[in-house]
Amino acid sequence: MRLLLVRHGQTPTNVDYLLDTGVPGPGLTDLGRRQAAALPQALAGEDIAALYASTLVRTQLTAAPLAAARGLEVLVRDGLREVSAGDMEMLPGLSEAGERYMRTVFAWADGDTDLRMPGGETGTEFLARYDAVVAEAAASGAGTVAMVSHGAAIRAWAAARAHNVDVPFAAAHRLENTGVVVLEGTPGDGWKALTWAGATVVPAGEGGPTGRALDGTA
Questions:
Q1: Is residue 8 among the annotated active site residues?
Q2: Taking phi first (over 0 means left), then psi (-120 to 50 degrees means alpha), and beta for anything else, what does residue 123 get?
Q3: Residue 148: which H helix or E strand, with range?
Q4: Given 82, 136, 150, 173, which residue is catalytic?
Q5: CA 152 to chain CA mean position, Å
Q6: Quick one: pLDDT at residue 34?
Q7: Residues 139, 196, 174, 6: is their CA dihedral positive or negative?
Q8: What is the DSSP track for 96-136?
Q9: Cα(38)–Cα(43) distance, rounded to whole angstroms?
Q10: In the annotation, is 173 catalytic?
């Protein structure tokens, strides 16, 4: 299966760099709506057979123009929502709280899945819910699937599940609004990332989590 993980369009709390992960969350800014409207053309070369979005409003609004252009139903799944910020919800991302949030997310990707986000979920819980949606899509038999999700969730899942994406790469490569990570594989055989926001994936090598706190999250 070819899997397109798409970050949603810009939101007001993206502009303010806040850890905004709750459901249903805000809508899109004017720029975010333009980003969503541009997705059908940006993905014109992809033969998308199924389209998913999270339970947060911003992903569904981002998916809507693509769904209309392709005649697809948007399949809403809670498993694709952003990593919950828990006790740090709505705190500034460019702060100690934001840094802790991203350190926790990348620790999960590095294998410490028992670690719990303060007041939130563990890595085991996050990966299980995300994996379940990917497994559902794979079982459908669709050749190419697009999932509109969230920055930290996409980076964490890709680093945990794609054999050629390591933590330093995911930490150093933020995902802009409507940025796309393209992977191929199956839940059973594993995944390979082909491109990350249009660039070929080249793992950064060994090293600890780095990167700014909120870049490419929420």
A1: yes
A2: alpha
A3: strand 144-149
A4: 82
A5: 6
A6: 98
A7: negative
A8: HHHHHHHHHHHHHHTT-TT-B-TTS-BHHHHHHHHHHHHHH
A9: 9
A10: no
The values of phi and psi at residue 69, to 5°, are -70, -30
Query: Which residue numbers in the chain have pLDDT < 70?
Result: 203-216
Task: Report which residue type is found at 69.
Answer: A
Strands 180-186 and 190-196: antiparallel
Q: Looking at 8, 96, 121, 125, which residue is catalytic?
A: 8
Q: How many other CB atoms sit within 10 Å of the CB of residue 133?
A: 20
Q: Residue 218 has what pLDDT?
A: 78
pLDDT of residue 87: 97
Give CA–CA dist 7/179, Å, rounded: 6
Three-state DSSP state, 31: helix
The distance between the two most distant Cα atoms of the chain, rounded to a whole number of Å, is: 44
